Structures are given as C-alpha cells and as structure tokens.
C-alpha cells in the first residue's frame, strides 16, 4: 500500500505545482478564512494531490491485473470513440502514469494556462473598474461624489487597504470570467493524460478512426 506513495520526480513536481496553485486560489477567494494559516494550507493542498495520485495509481494497478474484465467506454468530449476491457484501459493508464514526459507536459500546459489567465485578468481589471466607475458616475452622480469625498478623507493606510481589496476582487472576477470564456469556447482545462490515453488506444478497440472524427 505505502509503496504507491513513493512518487516519481515528475509526479512529485506535478503535486507541488497543483498544491501551490490550489492554495493560492483558496487564499485569494477566502482570505479571512485562511489568514495566518497559509503554510498549513499549502501542506494540505500538496498532500491532497499526493494522496489522490497515489491512491489512483493503486487502483489502476489492481484493475490491470485480471485477464478478463467488462468493457468500458472511452470518450473524447461527448463522443464515445472506443470500448475496451477495463483491465486494458487500466494497463494503458498505468503506462501513462509511468511516463515522466506526460506529467512534464501536463505541468507545462497548466503553467501556461495559469500565466495566460492571470495576464488576461490583469489586462481586463482596469477596464472593468473604469466601466464600473463610469456606470456609477452616469447612473448616480451624487453617490459618485460622496464616494470620492469619502476616499479623499480616508486615512492613507485604510485607503491602500480598500483599494487593494477592490483590485483583488475585480481581478478574481476577471480571472473567473476568462476561465468561463475558455470553457464555453471549448478549450477548457488542458488534459494531457486524456490525449495520451486516446493516442495509445489499440486500433481494434476504436469505434472511430483517429483523424476522421466529424
């Protein structure tokens, strides 16, 4: 059982990366909940991915050993592209999980996605704030004047805190909007593991030949 928790180097790096990203997202979304406990949140996030990967590796190791097993469907999006015995699917997944290049590629694609989402969020944040200020000034000029006067009379430390809070909130909204737009456009989250599984499917199990999908 415990041998599955001894991960390969690329698997460890993958868990560290995903754990760090998850901890940062949780701290941004719920700063009051996780204030002062960032280190423990980071450890818990990494441990979550580490344990999940180890337990799933154990699962597919057990599933790949029988010689006969029921058929399971393999999907590419909403389309079933193959039906393979469960032990054959587990065998392919076992090979993929032993392939360091798959984990390296998945980590790089997630890094690229994170950078793209953050950069686009930073780009859209000023525009969103300007639009919000414009709507407030146009729809309720008196409230806009009161807000400006309140900001002018606010202590510098509190003003910086409030501006930082608003920027963080608008950035979160922008990042979530970018992610939703990617999902709607059909891009979604990169999944190198799924692509590797589809590429390694034996031809005799495929219902649709790769490259001929419509």
From TrEMBL:
* Membrane-spanning ranges: 12-33, 39-56, 121-139, 159-185
Top-level lineage group: Bacteria
Q: Which UniProt keywords apply?
A: Membrane, Transmembrane, Transmembrane helix
Q: What is this protein called?
A: Uncharacterized protein
State the organism named in the record: Klebsiella variicola
């Amino acid at each position: 059982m415990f041998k599955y928790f001894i991960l390969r180097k690329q698997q460890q790096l993958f868990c560290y990366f995903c754990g760090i990203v998850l901890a940062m997202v949780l701290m941004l979304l719920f700063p009051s909940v996780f204030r002062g406990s960032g280190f423990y949140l980071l450890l818990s996030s990494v441990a979550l991915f580490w344990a999940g990967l180890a337990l799933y590796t154990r699962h597919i190791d057990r599933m790949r050993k029988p010689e006969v097993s029921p058929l399971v469907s393999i999907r590419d999006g909403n389309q079933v592209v193959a039906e393979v015995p469960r032990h054959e699917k587990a065998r392919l997944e076992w090979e993929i999980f032993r392939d360091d290049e798959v984990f390296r590629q998945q980590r790089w694609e997630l890094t690229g996605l994170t950078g793209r989402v953050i950069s686009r969020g930073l780009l859209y944040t000023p525009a969103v704030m300007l639009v919000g200020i414009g709507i407030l000034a146009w729809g309720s000029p008196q409230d806009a004047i009161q807000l400006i006067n309140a900001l002018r009379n606010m202590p510098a430390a509190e003003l910086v805190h409030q501006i930082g809070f608003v920027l963080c909130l608008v950035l979160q909204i922008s990042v979530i909007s970018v992610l939703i737009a990617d999902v709607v456009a059909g891009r979604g989250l990169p999944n190198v593991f799924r692509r590797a599984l589809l590429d390694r499917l034996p031809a005799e199990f495929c219902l649709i030949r790769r490259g001929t999908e419509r």
